[in-house]
# Entry
Amino acid sequence: MKYIVLLFALIGLSAPTFAGSDLKAKDLLSHSDCFNCHSVDHKIIGPAFKDIAKHYHGNQASAATINMLAAKIIKGGNGHWNAVTGGIAMSAHPQLSMAQTTEMVKWVLAQ
Ligand code: HEC
# Structure
């Protein structure tokens, strides 16, 4: 009985976290400088988030791809989109953690 109560308590606690996770990721992007260089549907300095999502197969992206992209946001750099950007590099974001950039990448891939 105690465990059932505990189980419901856990479900109750985790439900708002799931519902809020999309908003949380969008918040992370808005509070960083991402939208200075990216928009969802057109290239600014960086490629459109929709084009990035399409290129990496959106929600089908492998864990390795998600990790690579999360690490790339922290380190910055160029190379994958030179044909689109003319070789401009993404700035580094050493203030962000892998957990944060992983959330951001998942949001980007859902566009
Ligand atoms: C100074 C401009 C700039 C800022 C700020 C910026 N980006 Fe980028 N971003 C770029 C450019 C340019 C590329 C293309 C890099 C390449 O050619 O590999 C890129 C590429 C990406 C990619 C694809 C990487 C790849 O290797 O395919 C993702 C994902 C991304 N950005 C997410 C973000 C997020 C999230 C933020 C905010 C934390 C952000 N960017 C901030 C310019 C920027």
Q: What stands out?
A: The pocket of heme C is lined by residues 29, 32-34, 36-38, 45-47, 52, 69, 72-73, 78-82, 85, 88-91, 93, 104-105, 108 (CB under 6 Å).
